[in-house]
């Protein structure tokens, strides 16, 4: 397990990466604000959280189990928040996410991570870029974390949007060999958007709940900053929903394009079959073992050949004019 710590006092960063055993001494100071980051903690670390910070056993159980829905649970002495950071593969089709659990007390924010996909260094950098907000305590720390998460959601949906636009360009230009590739990419994009929706849609309620006056996590000066985060959450949610509808439209258009191509092929096959049917019918008629006009004469052969050529040419020109060939 890897542990990271920070101590703020009256809006000033005093200590960083101090031992976890010093938490009790720092918590004794009412003006102290702590950040504790636990990477892949074990049972002993969760027990320590329950003893030092009074974390409820149900919240500890949710943090230990992966796959929680993004949510905000309120307890008597603290809040528990579950959220996800997302990334999109370079081809813009596969989405991966990293879960993070957050405990919020009056004096501390504790983050719990179970994989390396979450870029905690970016969160720390955001805190260092806004030292003037550090005096707002836990609300300041939480804002930097949420801002990082929502910006990641925004970047992911923008990358997926670019992939959908690229797919639209390939839709009508795709040849026979690319049809299967387009279908595979459409399916992958739809799957990624469904997974992204499961992450971003609940965040709307999470941020909205944090901004409620009775929670006492956000001070009045931080409300505009959280409102900005909430606006980004709404934009990401609406963008994700519109992209899902657009991918469905692409799938339907792809089926329509294939149907149109099939109709075109069928028209060509039918036209050539009609043209070939003319010489087949005439030669079959003249091939009967019975006397017919011109039987045994050169004029009969010339007449049948002329009829075949003329009728085939007429049919070819007719189908060509109707754009069937």
Automatic annotation (TrEMBL):
One of its GO terms (molecular function) is cobalt ion transmembrane transporter activity. The chain crosses the membrane at residues 269-287, 299-319. The keyword Membrane applies. This is Mg2+ transporter protein. GO terms for cellular component: plasma membrane. It is found in: Cell membrane. It comes from the Bacteria. Belongs to the CorA metal ion transporter (MIT) (TC 1.A.35) family. The keyword Phosphoprotein does not apply. Its main location: membrane. It is a multi-pass membrane protein. Coiled coil: none annotated.
């Amino acid at each position: 397990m890897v542990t990271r710590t920070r101590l703020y006092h009256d809006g000033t960063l005093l200590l960083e990466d101090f031992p976890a055993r010093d938490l009790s001494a720092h918590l004794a100071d009412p003006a102290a604000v702590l950040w504790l980051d636990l990477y892949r903690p074990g049972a002993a670390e969760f027990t320590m959280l329950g003893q030092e910070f009074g974390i409820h056993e149900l919240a500890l159980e949710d943090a230990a189990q992966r796959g929680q829905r993004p949510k905000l649970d309120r307890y008597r002495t603290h809040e528990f928040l579950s959220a996800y950071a997302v990334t999109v593969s370079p081809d813009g089709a596969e989405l991966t996410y990293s879960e993070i659990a957050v405990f919020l007390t009056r004096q501390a924010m504790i983050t719990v991570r179970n994989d390396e996909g979450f870029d905690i260094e970016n969160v720390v950098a955001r805190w260092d870029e806004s030292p003037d907000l550090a005096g707002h305590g836990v609300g300041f720390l939480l804002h930097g974390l949420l801002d990082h998460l929502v910006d990641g959601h925004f970047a992911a949906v923008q990358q997926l949007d670019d992939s959908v636009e690229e797919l639209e360009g390939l839709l009508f230009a795709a040849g026979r060999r690319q049809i299967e590739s387009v279908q595979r990419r459409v399916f992958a994009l739809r799957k990624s958007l469904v997974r992204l929706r499961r992450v971003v849609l609940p965040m709307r309620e999470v941020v909205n709940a944090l901004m409620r006056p009775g929670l006492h996590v956000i001070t009045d000066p931080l409300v505009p900053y959280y409102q900005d985060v909430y606006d980004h959450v709404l934009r990401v949610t609406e963008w994700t929903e519109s992209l899902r509808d657009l991918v469905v439209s692409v799938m339907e258009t792809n089926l329509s394009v294939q149907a149109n191509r099939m109709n075109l092929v069928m028209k060509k096959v039918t036209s050539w079959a009609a043209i070939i049917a003319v010489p087949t019918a005439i030669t079959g008629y003249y091939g009967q073992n019975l006397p017919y006009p011109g039987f045994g004469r050169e004029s009969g052969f010339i007449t049948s050949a002329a009829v075949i050529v003329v009728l085939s040419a007429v049919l070819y020109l007719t189908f060509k004019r109707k754009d069937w060939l």
